[in-house]
Amino acid sequence: MTTVVLLGAPGAGKGTQAVLLRDRLGIPHIATGDLFRAAVRDGSALGVQARRYMERGQLVSDEITVKMLLDRLAEPDARDGAILDGFPRTRVQAEALDAALAAAGSQVDRALLVEVPERELVRRLAGRWICSMSGHVYNLAANPPQIPGTCDLDGSNLVQRADDKLETVQARLRQQLAALADVVDHYRDANVLAAIDGLQPIPDVTEALVAALAAARSAG
Ligand code: ADP
Ligand code: AMP
Question: 45-62 pLDDT, tens per residue?
Fold first, then answer.
């Protein structure tokens, strides 16, 4: 079982890279943000609860988030592991993941931190457009669709996320950068952290992530 955790601030490029890594590693990409957005779309009880936090740019409570993630990890496609994107985002979540993996005789193999300065994060989130059907991620400057407003992969309309408006972005960064620092410390202490320069072009970031994973394998 291989569990890889992708860490980074909102807008660092986690979702973009997780899809590319999924294709390389052959394990599913699990993003708690995507799970919450699907719950909000479905209008489920979970979605109603999560929406209140997401609208304000706040983290959803650890209790709700951990339960949702562990339920997802228990599904058959994650038997051989997963790439976790956007989880854990607090120390409590990191400890809950460690405990669940330890109970299955496993552990987080690598925590990959995609580092991007705050000014660039704001710029990226302002230019982010996502596919309304499947969440494929584009950027007006760095990764534009071939036909404006249309997803290259399935032809759906592209939309901006409700929480990518400037004031919500600022609230998200305020709260989430401090929490991220705690999670980074947690994985540094566990000796599984690798930091990657997220300012590089998208394919170069992917190569750096793959190299960090290979280095961990040969060292372990
Ligand atoms: P996260 O999942 O960390 O919030 P995303 O993967 O959604 O971040 O990326 C945020 C925005 O930045 C998207 O518009 C994406 O296309 C763009 N982006 C991702 N990686 C890069 C990169 N290396 N250089 C420039 N823009 C990028
Ligand atoms: P993301 O798509 O990763 O940017 O997440 C969108 C929003 O979902 C975040 O701003 C939070 O409100 C919520 N969220 C996603 N993952 C988590 C998490 N691990 N813990 C708490 N809230 C989360």
Answer: 999 999 999 999 999 999
